[in-house]
Design goal:
With 57 residues, this protein is mainly α. The protein has helices spanning 7-16, 22-25, 29-56. Keywords: Membrane, Transmembrane, Transmembrane helix. The chain crosses the membrane at residues 31-55. Residues 1-21 are annotated as: Disordered.
Amino acid sequence: MSNQTGIVEETKKAVADNERPLGEHAPGTPFMLVALSYLAVLAAVAGVVALIMWAGN
């Protein structure tokens, strides 16, 4: 089990590889990056809106 790379390490290797496209090297990685990016942006926007509403009271 110790010789298997984790998903974070695999993603780092796939992003750094200039010879093959990301989707070819790690097929699920592009979707994962996009999905997590959308969630991060949504959380940041929700936090800013909550801070503005809290400060307005």
